[in-house]
Amino acid sequence: MANTKSALKRIRQTATRTARNRAVTSKLKTLRKKVAAAVETSDKEAAAAAYNTFSSAVDKAANRAANYKSKAAKAIAKIA
């Protein structure tokens, strides 16, 4: 267990960031599945809308340091 105030603060910060990053990762997985489902149904409009939502969310996650930028670029290219 941490003994100093700064170490206790770091534990709190880590817990907050971990929870936020898990939520973002879960959201990205859900959006990726929605894109795949829209592509399978051959609905071009729904697929395009789902892709735009997914790519936007991935870019935002990369800018907020929830994901690496290279991982974001790879995910978008893979879905495209």
Tell me which oligomeric state these chains represent.
Answer: single chain
List the total number of helices: 3
Shape estimate? elongated
Percent range for β-strand residues: under 5%
Rg, alpha carbons: 17 Å
Q: End-to-end distance, in Å?
A: 47 Å
Give the helix/strand class: mainly alpha
Mean pLDDT level: 93
Helicity level, as a percent range? Answer: over 70%
Uncertain segments of ≥5 residues (pLDDT<50)?
Answer: none
Spell the H/E element sequence.
HHH
How many beta-strand runs?
A: 0
Short characterization:
The chain is mostly helical.
Outline the structure in words.
The protein is mainly α and 80 residues long. 84% of the residues lie in helices and 0% in strands. The protein contains three helices and no strands. Helix 1 packs antiparallel against helix 2 and helix 2 packs antiparallel against helix 3. The longest helix has 36 residues, at 5-40. It starts with a helix and ends with a helix. The model has no long low-confidence stretch (mean pLDDT 93).
Which features would summarize this protein structure in a list?
single chain, 80 residues, mainly alpha, 3 helices, 84% helix, elongated
What's the arrangement of secondary structure elements?
Elements: H1 5-40, H2 44-63, H3 69-79
Helix pairs in contact: 1-2, 2-3
